[in-house]
Amino acid sequence: MTKRQKEQLDFEGQRPGETVVFIFRRHIIAMRKGFYLLLIPFALSALPVLIWPSTLELLWFPLGGLTLGLILFFYHWMMWYFTIYIVTDQRIRQITQKGFFGKDVVELRLSKIQNISYNIPGFTGEVFGFGTIVIQTFVGDLVIRYVEHAEKIYNKLQDVVDTVISEQEGNEEASI
Prior knowledge:
Elements: H1 3-8, E1 20-25, H2 32-51, H3 60-81, E2 84-88, E3 91-98, E4 102-109, E5 113-119, H4 122-128, E6 130-137, E7 141-148, H5 150-175
Antiparallel strand pairs: 1-2, 2-3, 3-4, 5-6, 6-7
């Protein structure tokens, strides 16, 4: 990401002088329940058409099932799309969509991070390229599940935290 692209990334609640390092979201596999809720109503509503194929009025059932499935899918897509993680040069900000109108925001200062680890959950995580990142602090853990390319995000987070720690140590030595 070039310096110009970083300057263009702004978000609500950004502090003066704060620079966005990168933004990430969960893997699309986190929406698998939404995909199921799209397919199941459609498949169930198509059964009458398969049983009585000569009755044309029954074609409304699959259309209704598809409409219901799309509404349920849209809800899960919205939860996935509007849940993001913003990493700046000062903090990590987790914005989680809760329902149609609610959201939770969790902030974690990079200087408070003790340890970062990641986990690839077996065969499916390896095949689809997702994992879990755990950020440990003094007050508790921030667990981010279904992170796309968890190893890459982990390495980026480590680099940002190392940069902040080295800057703090440099400031402490300069003040002595």
